[in-house]
Write a structure and sequence with these properties.
The structure is a single chain. 31% of the residues lie in helices and 25% in strands. By secondary structure, it is of the alpha+beta class. The protein has three domains: 117 residues, 3-Layer(aba) Sandwich (Rossmann fold); 66 residues, ATP-grasp fold, A domain (Dna Ligase, domain 1), CATH 3.30.1490.20; 131 residues, 2-Layer Sandwich (D-amino Acid Aminotransferase, Chain A, domain 1), CATH 3.30.470.20. Strand 1, helix 1 and strand 2 form a beta-alpha-beta unit. The protein is globular and about 65 Å long.
């Protein structure tokens, strides 16, 4: 019997369009002989749709063959029905491919936990901590992982530090980014006071807490991690962006940006970075999947960030890294779904009442 897999995509975050591209590739990679695929889309305004077919609209718009799961139905008694066709709790597993806010930060994971539905990717804790660049850096520093020096700013502060105060501590240039966003959304490279003022406005558009980090003039190295209790690391890949840094546009729209797989790094250092990726994955309580990004300066490496729902577009690094590591995308889908089900089975054995 085929497994019923719900592919949940779209979402309210700034990465809605990336999610659509990722979902298309995930659906195309799934073996239709193994899986009965159900598409569930969340629009930019938060409305849920169930799609009768498995063809994702190019713009992610609800077509005539969709049925709405209205926000009014998301309450204690009625949250499980999607139209009259599918009870969401009848799904065997959910593949959430919603990047950023409300999809990658533990919110969606909590919803699925309440339904006792197995789902791909880290749980509530790993998702929320991994999403918050400030908290994840604090935990990893305590675990002995090297990270870029940084400052954390809050939108509600009466007075923000000046550009001069920031550069006195971190040097110049610096990078400014929202703490809870991905795909380089809201990220700016800051070299002067005018760019600093504009960068504050841009970053605070997407979060109430932002991170300012020192610039590390190094190579951009990425490693994919896969597994639950005993995760494994892929080969290392190197980003060779043609733009000034690996921006949102460079990640998803710039066909001239290149990658090198495997990265040209000595074997001993490669193994050390792969081990560090697994350590980071475990320290942050991740399971299922994550992509860990590093800066490499000489033979010294620093964590850049972890992505707990990495992109699955046709140029995304996570599936490519596993492809080059000997796991084609169809097999990767199988392993991710199997990991989700095994984690749910493990949790089902726990006792929650006395």
């Amino acid at each position: 019997m085929k497994l019923k897999v719900g592919v949940l995509y779209g979402g309210k975050s700034a990465e809605h369009d990336v999610s659509i591209k990722s979902a298309k590739n995930i659906v195309n990679a799934m073996d239709r002989n193994k899986y009965d695929i159900h598409l569930i889309k969340i629009s930019k305004d938060g409305t849920w749709y169930w799609q009768k077919n498995t063809v994702i609209p190019t713009e992610g718009k609800a077509e005539n063959d969709t049925e709405i799961l209205s926000n009014q139905n998301l309450d204690a008694g009625e949250l499980v029905k999607i139209g009259n066709k599918l009870d969401i709790k009848s799904l065997d597993v959910v593949f959430p491919i919603i990047h950023g806010t409300y999809g990658e930060d533990g919110s969606l994971q909590g919803f699925l936990e309440m339904l006792d539905l197995p789902y791909v990717g880290p749980g509530i804790l790993g998702s929320s901590v991994g999403m918050d660049k400030d908290l994840s850096k604090r935990l990893l520093l305590q675990a002995g992982v090297k990270v870029a020096d940084s400052m954390t700013l809050y939108s509600w502060s009466e007075q923000q530090p000046t550009y001069e105060e920031v550069t006195a501590k971190l040097g110049t240039p610096v990078f400014m980014k929202p703490c809870n966003a991905g795909s380089s959304v809201g990220v700016s490279k800051i070299r002067n006071a005018d760019e600093y003022a504009a960068g504050l406005l841009e970053a605070f558009r997407f979060d109430t807490k932002i991170l300012i980090e020192e610039f590390i003039d190094g190579r951009e190295i990425e490693c994919a991690v896969l597994g639950n209790e005993y995760p494994k690391a892929s080969i290392l890949g190197e980003i060779l962006p043609t733009q000034e840094f690996y921006s949102y546009d460079a990640k998803y729209n710039d066909a001239t940006s290149r990658t090198q797989m495997p990265a040209d790094i000595p074997a001993d250092l490669t193994n050390e970075i792969r081990e560090a990726a697994i350590k980071i994955f475990q320290v942050l309580a991740c399971e299922g999947m994550a992509r860990v990004d590093f800066f490499l300066r000489g033979d010294e490496y620093f964590l850049n960030e972890i992505n707990t729902i990495p992109g699955f577009t046709n140029i995304s690094m996570y599936p490519q890294l596993w492809e080059y590591s000997g796991i084609p995308q169809a097999q990767l889908m199988d392993e991710l779904i199997d990991l989700a089900i095994k984690r749910a089975e493990r949790k089902a054995k726990l006792q929650f009442t006395m």
